[in-house]
Amino acid sequence: MKVLVPVKRVVDYNVKVRVKSDGSGVDIANVKMSMNPFDEIAVEEAMRLKEGGKVTEVVAVSCGVAQCQETLRTAMAIGADRGILVETTEELQPLAVAKLLKALADKEQPQLIILGKQAIDDDSNQTGQMLAALLGWGQATFASKVVIEDGKATVTREVDGGLETIALPLPAIVTTDLRLNEPRYVTLPNIMKAKKKPLENVKPADLGVDVTPRLKTLKVSEPPKRSAGIMVKDIAELVSKLRNEAKVI
Ligand code: AMP
């Protein structure tokens, strides 16, 4: 069984991004880029399924600029068998990525696609859902446990009131939540090994996909500045301030 794992190159989660002065977006020139953390969890889960004998091949896919190769090499250092870069300098929105992944799924015929629940740069939380709709497959989003058995996936999902367990036939889409697993550290020998793994390069046109953006960003602005906190002497003063100044109780 083959698993496809889409991995996105995003601004590293430790970087404090700045909004450009013209409000057209955030400044990503010269900032550290890394694999989207939820996608690391997705690669880790695919590896655990492979190590558990449920999966025979793990293919990582990244869509975007040439530097996404680094993200694919990281996925291969975690253990993915090969990588596919869909190379474009166009801005890619979730619908375009979902269409690219649909075209690749048609070609590669995986039984399972594990995506991150959301990319930490655009916070869209859309690609997995759109891909499931385009493919006509079932989807289990926000997974905190995945079991593959007898041609079906049993997935525990993190929902508002607690945990929900659902079963879905394969092929299927799963999106990862934070508690699914803890990704392993990438070791130097595995980084070296990853350099020799196959990395295919295709263009959106090769897949017959039009990636033209459908959404236009009108404005990006900084969140309002938070005022500094104050120290209170005792609970009575705290209650008085909450009641008379903040007027929240
Ligand atoms: P989003 O819908 O943008 O929040 O992204 C959700 C998930 O879709 C990510 O965690 C990735 O698994 C996948 N994804 C989104 N954009 C890309 C991309 N450009 N290349 C590869 N995978 C992507």
TrEMBL record:
List the SMART domains: ETF
Superkingdom as given in the UniProt entry: Bacteria
The alphabetical list of record keywords is:
Electron transport, Transport
* CDD domains linked to this entry: ETF_beta
InterPro entries, from UniProt? ET-Flavoprotein_bsu_CS, ETF_a/b_N, ETF_b, ETF_beta_N, Rossmann-like_a/b/a_fold
Pfam families, alphabetically? ETF
Q: Identify the residues that the record assigns to the Electron transfer flavoprotein alpha/beta-subunit N-terminal domain, covering every copy.
A: 23-211
The record's PROSITE patterns line, in alphabetical order, gives: ETF_BETA (PS01065)
Q: Hey, which family's this protein in?
A: Belongs to the ETF beta-subunit/FixA family.
Question: What name does UniProt use for this protein?
Answer: Electron transfer flavoprotein subunit beta
